Write the structure tokens for this entry.
Amino acid sequence: MLRFTVKCAWKDCYESDIGLSDKHGMPAQSTPLRESKKVPTDLLDFDPKNPRFAEDPLRNPTDGEIIEYLSDKADLSELVQSIAANGYIDIEPMIVMQRAGGRFAVLEGNRRLAVIKLLKNPDLVGNSGIVVPPITKTIRDTLEKVTVYRVKDHEEARDFVGFKHINGPHKWDALAKARFAADWYEAERSKGITLRDIARRLGDRHDTVLRLVNGIFVLDQAEKARIFDIHDRYPERAFAFSHLYTALTRPQYRDYLGLLAEWRTNEPKANPVPKSHLENLRHVMVWLFGSKSDDIRPVIRSQNPHIKWLGAVLQNPTARAVMLARNDLQEAYKLVDTPAARLEAALVNALQNAEVALSQVAFFDGTNYTMVELSGRLVKTATLINTTLVSASKPVVTAEPHGKAEDAD
């Protein structure tokens, strides 16, 4: 078949069907921008930049490796059984971007593409553990061509893809959401886009997206500085990205990392942790996620209460020293969680709850006598606490003013 060159950027034009073929000898597809059209599924490739791959970035992966990864992270088994039984229901177009040689990268629809590839070639199952049932010719015919909608680039697809996977029916995990929002922000920040703009277009809250992007920038800095490697986290644990961005909302962690108070509200910037605090960042990442190479288990086993405990330890010099020396969160926290500290925390909580109750007193209808009884018991308890604390309090010694004359005889 005759081949000739089309002189334009491959992203901005498409090749005519007439007289063209791709490198495999298959007819190249005429697929105009922003139009839907059916194309052979053999021309569809996975998008290696899919945010689902943020946790364990794949380097030049095969189809089988991507399918195994998606099976682990996105649960393909149910979709395999559904399409094997009913065929591919071609309602929602896959979002694609043109590649060289008349092929297409699937920006939205990688789970569906994975199942199509599996059903057409069960050998791709690899170590995924997916059971691929045999299919009839009728079912197989539905897998040969699917409808795609071609966009110019990743940027053009962001609004649709982001809304669907951040607040839509097929939500990504926190790390994929963060990577998607951060990549969008970095790609268009020079054009004046703000994180608030991105949050609005995603249909999400600004503070939520800000926490995610701040977290991904700290994670990226740790990896670029080679003080943490996501692949080196302690074995047999998924990467709990929420531990990191939740910890960063607490002032104790931000102080330990040298992050200023306004960091939480300003537009995010790459490499936010000062170089002088990178060693502290290394400690935090190991405490959160552990280290396979050093055989160190993470001290954060559950977000509640361990994130709070570690924050309290970081604020206390003695407890922090124990944490650094022994990597034992419970032992270090004992130096913070003293009976006196628990009493103070209980009093603060009681006062806050009492103030909330006071703000609602106007709504008392005069008929619920249980409330009257409870308020009376509250007064008695508060009086007893106050009396006990006052009686146990040591007198405050005040110094005599300097130069005061002695009393006359």
About this structure: Residues 339-385 form one domain.
